[in-house]
Specification:
Blueprint (H helix, E strand, L loop, with lengths): L2 H24 L8 H11 L14 H39 L3
Length: about 100
């Protein structure tokens, strides 16, 4: 086994351990809640009342899905552009080395 493969294998094992160990050590007893929910609960406990009601209140799942789709589309576009540019450069360098125009 070469050194490069050993380092790659150790890095993969380390990443898997970083993900799996906290879940295994916890034993499923922790309640994973986001800070948005905790902040909303703290505000409601303080007795705050909003000044006005929203005119339009979109479903949070619709907005979340739309933002995720937009992020995926932008990421895919950037990745495709970069890979296309790199391939084009490589082909241009090869054609120059071969003496083709």
């Amino acid at each position: 086994m070469t050194r490069r493969r050993l380092v790659t294998a150790l890095l993969v094992v380390a990443v898997v351990a970083l993900v799996a160990l906290p879940l295994l050590l916890d034993g499923g007893s922790a309640e994973y809640a986001g800070t948005d929910g905790q902040a909303a609960a703290a505000i409601e406990e303080s007795g705050y009342r909003p000044w006005f009601e929203s005119v339009f209140s979109p479903s949070s799942q619709e907005v979340e899905s739309g933002l995720f789709a937009l992020q995926a589309a932008l990421g895919g576009g950037v990745l495709g552009y970069v890979l296309g540019r790199l391939r084009g450069r490589r082909q241009a360098e090869r054609s120059r080395e071969d003496g083709r125009p």
